[in-house]
Amino acid sequence: MSYSHIKTITVDHLKVVNTAQTNFPVLLSTTDAELRSIQNGGFISNANGYDIAFYLTNDLSGSRLPHEIDNYNPTTGKVEIWIKLPTLSNSSDTVFYMAIGDNSIAVSQENKSDLWTDFLAVYHFGTPSLISVSDSKGVNNGVNNGVTASTGKIGGAGNFISSSSQYINVGSNASIKPTTDFSISAWAKTSQINTIAILFSMFGNSGSNYDGYRLAQLDAGFGNKMSINTFNNTSGTLYGKMPNSTYNNNTWNKYTAIIKQSNSSYEFYANNVNSSTNMGSGYTSPLYLNSPVGVIGALNYNGGRLQYWNGQIDELRIYNGVLSKDWSDTEYNNQNDPSTFLSISTAIAISGGVIPDTSKFFLFF
Question: What does the pLDDT read at residue 272?
């Protein structure tokens, strides 16, 4: 590779909460004139941003860090890129490097499968002008039923209108029907009240027997609160957990819900708050007996759909395991305000293949 420039990226360790994290997908979200295409006065050769790469070392040795370009605008230099860092320290700043500008690169250098290897499904929902229902894992791609593009918390989001019965089917692959501990997280925005509204569900029924799980806003009987619920072929039994506060305030909120099948418990984090209440007097592992179907923005019931979401959904993920409160808080810090989570240096030219002394870089915020 013959990159023309290198930039230093520094993660503020004070934004990494309590404990170091491993294999953490960091969001780089910025508008940087140096990341415009060459035709627009920047240093990027490929119009898709393919000649952007990331390394742990300032001599660009070793393997590239896995990354995914969520959005890239060659005219403005606006980027949203996810980069997997093997370690994110809470005691000292984590530093890594962006290499840019190589006109020999014409194909993507992204490595989504490695980046998201610990996840079961990942949905970014495209750009503010073009909806995407693809799973970054490539396994659980959606089928869109009327959902449109809108401005998201990060790039684009899905805009769901309940009165138009809009939703996204994501199928019933075994990968999103976990039988061990798993977590669901998403950014969402709604002002809907007094009705059950589904953010994500894997649900099926046979008559009045229900099974599966759902991440949903409940009705007035539960204070219009968000919740994680599981069902186990038992009519009328509702188990799960919900936060102690309501969040239907028409602003972006981040939810992380955890189903611990190993010890029969739940966790629910809203934004960076762990204040939640158990629902029901017990726990049930989600079973998948009645042909459940995964749906974003609605519930599969008797082969149809109901309980539609009204508002926006962004960055929906299903994680294979338990996301700790520290992970969730660090993720919230990164995604809620990327500009304070990390800083990016000005670019330094690589002359004659010689990598410059990156200790002389200057940072901007």
Answer: 81
